[in-house]
Amino acid sequence: MTLQDVLLAVAGLVAVAGGVAVVTTKQLVRAGLWLVVALGAVAVEFLLLGAEFAAWVQVLIYVGAVVVLLLFAVMLTRAPIGRSSDLDRSVLPAALIGAASGLGLAALFVGVFGQFQVPAPAVGTAERIGDSVFGDWVLPFEVLSILLLAALVGAIVLSRPSAPAPQPDAVAQGNSR
Amino acid sequence: MTWDVILRVALVAVAFLTLPLIVGQTEHKVMAHMQARLGPMYAGAFHGWAQLIADGVKFAQKEDVTPRAADGPVFRLAPAVALLPYLLVLLVIPLGPGDLVGQQLDVGLFFVLAVVGVGVIAVLMAAWASANKYSLLGGLRAAAQLLGYELPFVLSAASVAMAAGTLSLPGIVAAWQPWWLLWQLPATIVFFVSGLAEIRRPPFDMPIADSELVFGYLTEYTGLRFAFFLLAEYVGIVVISALTAALFLGGWHGPWADSVGWLWMLLKTGAVAFVVIWLRVSWPRLREDQLQRLCWLVLVPLALAQLVLTAGVRVALG
After folding, report:
1. Phi-psi category of residue A27: left, alpha or beta, with phi > 0 → left and psi -120 to 50 → alpha
2. Rounded Cα distance, B287 and B203, in Å
3. Could you tell me if B110 and B171 are in contact, meaning their C-beta atoms sit under 8 angstroms apart?
4. Among B69, B136, B147, whose Cβ lies nearest the Cβ of A75?
5. How many domains are contained in chain B?
6. A21 in contact with B, Cβ within 8 Å
């Protein structure tokens, strides 16, 4: 066992513990902050595995943008300090499904890849990722960009203020959840 | 090898502790002279050079207050989260030719952009955990501002990375040529302005507008924790100035760059930091809607046009 293995295991534990904290904490905003811990630990895992570029993409997109948007949205609506008593969740089914899928996936991966020895690929530099994205994977990449563009256009169309003013009952419906 | 790493990290830590203080003291004196006063004159006897050390002692003596309604752990953690990203960024900024840089990083520019973006979380943490409506309003303003200005910030940095053909900061500086000053001029302006907004310096200090929000997300902070936020702001000035100098002004390029390259880099960083201070003295605070309009209607289109121009020139040059 090398130092890298130990660090990898520690980062993995932190990621899992952070994930558990996200779904078990009774404090709404803290759940978002635990998400930062979990996603940051995943970025550390990428880093330890030599995927530098993926690690920093993880930080830029997930920690810097997705979680921030999430926290921003929560704080715009309601963000009580302390415990929220009305966070309804069905603990038992969720725990069962989560544990089953996690353990199942782990068993599957160990069963399929357990006996293979894979040589560690070269460090995932920007150049290597660029080569493979614009070489082998250029078609999926372009399809993805069209998908993203369509989503962007859709978001703009949906949020345009030019639509006629909403009817009073529509507003009431929107608020009643 | 290990000693080398320790020495580099120690030197970066020294820069982290001294450069912000120098910038802060310069701000005191430059602002004062621009406003026809003297500024600090007593601490340390010679033109008040020790003023910030005295300030530090004062901050350390103050009571550390956590409001009763606040979310304690988050409230206490926020200043550290605010400070850490800038410390990490300082590690990869090249000071001189060769390997005169804290750590060589193949994706240095990307690392910088990713880590600077984490600073928003500290602001949101401080704003929410303070249990104060001024804090929350300031935090929301800050988050909207930082999310918006992140876009031109990243796009203008992407332009210079495209021009140099690398994401490594020493690589970009090495590829830099004087005519880039003209070619990358729009990106330079966009990067500097959105960088100012990223560190919430005047005229982009709407999140802590004292005439409306007391002190925004910093309202409830006292003593050392407040000093941490303040330090983060000044390290932010150093980082943004150094990045502007390294990416767009040629970093260590200059006469006799092989021997005194580090001096050129420091001088350029200092000049940009002076402009940051100058802008604070001479510009009124932007209103929230003006601030957003500047970002989305001026800076983003400008950055996109610069990207097209950069790509065109790159293709034309082969």
Report:
1. beta
2. 9
3. no
4. B136
5. 1
6. no
Please report which confidence band the pLDDT of residue A174 belongs to, taking 50, 70 and 90 as the band edges: very low
Q: What is the DSSP secondary-structure string of B118-146?
A: HHHHHHHHHHHHTT-HHHHHHHHHHHHHH
Structural domain range at position B197: 2-317
Query: By the CB < 8 Å criterion, does A41 face chain B?
Result: no
Could A27 and B113 be called an inter-chain contact, meaning their C-beta atoms sit closer than 8 Å? no
* Best CA proximity match to B115, nearest among B232, B11, B4, B208: B232
Beta strands per DSSP E along A47-105: none
Alpha-carbon span B100 to B94, nearest angstrom: 6
Expressed in angstroms, the distance from the first to the final Cα of chain A is: 53
Q: How far apart are CA B84 and CA B306, in angstroms?
A: 32
Q: Can you give the pLDDT at residue B190?
A: 93
**Tens digit of each residue's pLDDT (9 = 90 or more) over B254-287:** 788 777 778 888 899 999 999 999 998 888 888 8
In this structure, what is the dihedral angle of CA atoms A14, A16, A17, A19, given to the nearest 10 degrees? 120
Q: Which residue of B has its CA nearest to A78?
A: B128
* Average pLDDT taken over every residue of chain A: 81
What does R_g of chain B's alpha carbons equal in angstroms?
20
- Interface of B to A at Cβ within 8 Å reads 69-71, 74, 105-107, 110-111, 113-115, 117-118, 120-121, 124-125, 127-129, 131, 136, 139-140, 143-144, 146-147, 150, 167
Tens digit of each residue's pLDDT (9 = 90 or more) over B135-188? 888 888 888 888 888 889 989 998 998 888 888 888 888 888 888 888 888 999
> Between A and B, how many residue pairs show a Cβ–Cβ distance under 8 A?
85
**B41-96, pLDDT tens digit by residue?**
888 878 888 888 888 888 888 888 888 888 878 888 888 888 888 888 888 888 87
Q: Do B118 and A82 touch (CB under 8 A)?
A: no
ipTM over 0.85 threshold: no
CA angle B120, A72, A52 (to 5 degrees): 45
Searching chain B, which residue's CA lies closest to the CA of residue A68?
B121
- Distance CA(B269)–CA(B249), nearest Å, equals 9
Please judge whether A64 and B120 are an interchain contact, meaning their C-beta atoms are less than 8 angstroms apart: yes
* Chain A residues touching residue B140 (CB < 8 angstroms): 72, 75-76
- Please name every residue paired with B101 in a beta bridge, in sequence order, or none if there are none: B94
The torsion of the CA quartet A18, A19, A25, A31, rounded to 10 degrees, works out to 80
Helix segments in B165-299, DSSP class H: 169-175, 180-183, 185-198, 210-213, 223-248, 257-282, 288-293
